[in-house]
Write a structure and sequence with these properties.
The protein has 186 residues and is an alpha+beta fold. 56% of the residues lie in helices and 14% in strands. It has helices spanning 34-51, 59-69, 71-91, 132-185; strands at 13-16, 20-23, 97-105, 118-126. Strands 1-2 form a two-stranded antiparallel sheet. The chain has a two-stranded antiparallel ribbon with strand order 3-4.
Amino acid sequence: MDGIDVCGTMPLIKLHNALKVTRLTSFRPLTLPRSLATGLLCICSAAQLVHAEPQKLSLPELENLMSSQSPAVQAAANSVDSARAAVSTARTIPNPQIEVMNGTRNPRVGTNTPGADAKLKTISVTQDIDMPWHRFPRVDAALAGLQAAQANEASFKADIRAQLRLRYYDLVRRTAESRVAKKTSS
């Protein structure tokens, strides 16, 4: 039976027969099936949780934990950030475009124009003119999207906070009912 090196830093030890132990100097890494490795990790973490003391949290602590750790709340905040970026993008003036073209000009057959067979080089700069009747509605639409994202975030946070409070007070009620039931049964 081969020993399993969890950390990867200890040398593997191979047990032979009863108590004879030899040290392996060269070894092939032992690969475990994913489900077995996951199961071992779950058992190790469950063993630690059994011996851990339950932590009691107050309602404000739970609300702070929810607002800082909840992926759903963070996603709502990220949507507000993306709406803010859309407003910034809508307000920007378009950049000028520079275009450079190189080529040759070949004359038509039969014309003897001096300098007709020449190399051409063209450089052009184009600047879009952002007309106010296009720009202002674009910015207003982006601002409306930002306000909608902010309202959605506030509504979502209020809904999550209400659900948390409902479950917290339900737990407090059930704990009190359990205490009363234990007192009446003894």
